[in-house]
Write a sequence for this structure.
């Protein structure tokens, strides 16, 4: 039967397990005879080099590269993977030591040693690629290789979140022979040590993964090969699922397609797995812009935007309204924007503008990417335009670009206001604040805020018990609400649709909701 009420296993304390069982009988043949499991997603990689990626490319990296730490199925905190063991060796959380597994090799047979790990980390900082993950390593002072298997990370300041950073695909271990120390790899090859080898790759179309026979790690692969197909939109992806051209959908299911899959006339050969997500959508205001740079304008926008209508009308309640940059389910979540602004109120927004001497409609151009974050993005921005213009306080122009050129634009400061989505690097409030503040951040828009970067984040990172840092993050969010440089819109729910012949979907997402495709398999009989 069609399972409409399935939900994901706990994802980093975000969602609880609730998996309904059913029964079905399939062929008793070898599942491998049916060929690779085919996964569809609308999130194509922007690069194959980990030193250049702080985005959805990680979804591929998790399966073809290996990190010192990662998340075994069911884990909510990082555990050794390429490492045999890792730990802080001092009481101040400033020296972190890892010992590698013995006998590790890359997929081409080259040995993985401590120097290879040091090389992999050092090149991220040396290259400092635009849109790359160098900002994740802000607390790192230096990496030391001791012998063949011991790596020591010396931190500038205490950072209890550093193990989470090491578990991100940005810190994938790469072969020094193939990845230059001071430049990105230029060909389309990959030399990693993950559960799979990238057998072939067609940019924007598909990636073919086959079992890496040299892999040594915790992943228990339940299949021999996976093909990932990249789609431009949800409708085409779901059509391929219904036609049995793909077996699983991952990122990018549109609200209308989710609703259709949940409906009374839903296809009984498909399953839909649902759970709370950790991804958020938000607006970014450029402080260098004539209008977006004015606090009163930003706060007036915050006073007008109707998140509940967006969640219901545009996303059919497949997302929840979000009133802080830290989503529900993460320690430190608040409802700061609702507490300060309450329900949408154009009259209050008019007062905010008038206090700053603004009496005429404010011209703003809102930018968004037209090939990322799902099919509803364009409709979302049309709804924002409608809400803001109906208040009589704004004149809105909408502009869009494909992701690659969109990124170039916001990194150059070209956009007054632009939309972004965020899938967490790791499940901690730190990762919903730290990436967006400081001179170097994930947005390419400097946001110097010394109270956050110089006091609250450093203090919270001295605390190993992450449940004890709630007050610091609540204070940080009060500052974000006051500045209104970042305007949260919604928090996603996680949906994965799959053929009913596929098993393991409910186990396949790590705490950052990245798919571990090795958990997927074809059912024989159950």
């Amino acid at each position: 039967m069609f399972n409409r009420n399935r939900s994901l296993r706990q994802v980093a304390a975000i969602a609880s397990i609730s998996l309904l069982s059913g029964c079905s009988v399939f062929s008793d043949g070898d599942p491998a005879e049916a060929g690779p499991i085919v996964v569809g997603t609308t999130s194509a990689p922007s690069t194959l080099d980990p030193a250049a990626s702080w985005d959805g490319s990680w979804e591929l990296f998790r399966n073809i590269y290996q990190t010192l730490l990662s998340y075994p199925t069911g884990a909510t905190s990082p555990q050794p993977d390429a490492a045999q063991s890792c730990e802080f060796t001092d009481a101040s959380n400033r020296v972190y030591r890892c010992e590698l597994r013995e006998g590790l090799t890359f997929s081409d047979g080259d040995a993985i040693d401590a120097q290879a790990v040091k090389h992999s980390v050092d090149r991220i900082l040396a290259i400092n690629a635009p849109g790359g993950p160098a900002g994740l390593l802000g607390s790192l002072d230096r990496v030391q290789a001791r012998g063949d298997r011991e790596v020591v990370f010396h931190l500038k300041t205490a950072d209890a979140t550093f193990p989470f950073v090491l578990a991100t695909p940005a810190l994938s271990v790469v072969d020094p022979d193939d990845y230059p120390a001071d430049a990105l790899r230029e060909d389309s090859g990959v030399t990693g040590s993950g559960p799979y080898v990238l057998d072939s790759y067609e940019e924007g179309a598909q990636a073919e993964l086959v079992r890496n026979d040299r892999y040594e790690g915790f992943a228990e692969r339940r299949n021999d090969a996976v093909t990932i197909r990249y789609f431009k939109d949800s409708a085409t992806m779901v059509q391929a699922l219904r036609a049995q051209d793909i077996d699983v959908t991952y990122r990018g299911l549109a609200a209308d397609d989710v609703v259709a899959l949940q409906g009374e006339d839903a296809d009984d050969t498909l399953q839909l797995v649902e759970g709370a997500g950790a991804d958020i959508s938000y607006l970014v205001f450029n402080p260098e812009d004539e209008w977006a740079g004015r606090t009163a304008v930003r706060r007036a926008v915050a006073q007008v935007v109707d998140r509940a209508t967006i969640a219901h009308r545009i996303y059919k309640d497949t997302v929840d309204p979000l009133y802080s940059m830290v989503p529900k389910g993460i320690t430190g979540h608040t409802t700061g924007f609702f507490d300060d602004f309450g329900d949408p109120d154009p009259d209050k927004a008019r007062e905010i503008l008038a206090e700053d001497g603004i009496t005429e409609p404010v011209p703003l151009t809102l930018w968004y990417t037209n090939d990322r974050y799902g099919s509803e993005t364009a409709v979302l921005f049309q709804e924002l335009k409608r809400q803001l213009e109906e208040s009589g306080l704004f004149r809105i122009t909408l502009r869009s670009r494909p992701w690659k050129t969109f990124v170039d634009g916001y990194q150059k400061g070209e956009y007054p206001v632009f939309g972004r989505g965020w899938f967490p690097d790791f499940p901690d409030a730190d990762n919903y604040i730290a990436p967006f503040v400081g001179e170097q951040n994930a947005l390419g828009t400097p946001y110097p805020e010394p109270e956050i970067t110089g006091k609250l984040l450093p203090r919270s990172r001295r605390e190993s018990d992450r449940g004890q840092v709630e007050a610091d993050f609540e204070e940080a969010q009060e500052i974000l609400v006051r500045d209104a440089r970042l305007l949260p819109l919604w928090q996603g729910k996680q949906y994965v649709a799959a053929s009913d012949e596929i098993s393991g979907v409910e186990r396949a997402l790590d705490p950052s909701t990245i798919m571990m495709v090795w958990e997927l398999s074809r059912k024989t009989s159950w």
